[in-house]
Specification:
By secondary structure, the protein is of the alpha/beta class. It has four helices and three strands. It is 40% helix and 15% strand. Strands 2-1-3 form a three-stranded parallel beta sheet.
Length: 110
């Protein structure tokens, strides 16, 4: 039976931009509380404004270094995950696919 995992991550050419992408596009990655009771986009925006960079620690890789992302993905492959779905939270999707296709995915092993 396949073991599936979705990993949220933020990659950009600089660490600063990767953090900005996470803070702007995926603040829920830093929210350390249940979100099922959030009733409106306004309420979500109010909660998102409370997210700080340190809230992402241990929850999502935010880095410009492809090897940091590769190591995180490899960690789950080593645990027996058979299929990993990657979600880059920034809008820099074409650039991310180029970098990961060239510098990350070919270096992964089972």
């Amino acid at each position: 039976m396949p073991k599936l995992l979705q990993l949220h991550m933020s990659w950009a050419p600089t660490d600063e931009r990767a953090l900005e992408n996470a803070m702007t596009e995926w603040p829920n990655g830093g929210m350390r509380f249940p979100k099922q009771d959030v009733r409106s986009p306004y309420d979500f925006a109010q909660l998102a404004a409370l997210v700080r960079p340190e809230d992402f620690e241990g929850r999502m890789v935010i880095s410009s270094d492809p090897d940091v992302h590769r190591a995180e993905i490899q960690r789950f492959l080593d645990l027996g995950i058979t299929r990993v779905y990657l979600h880059n939270v920034g809008r820099n999707q074409a650039e991310w696919m180029d970098v990961f296709g060239r510098d990350v995915l070919p270096k992964l092993h089972r």
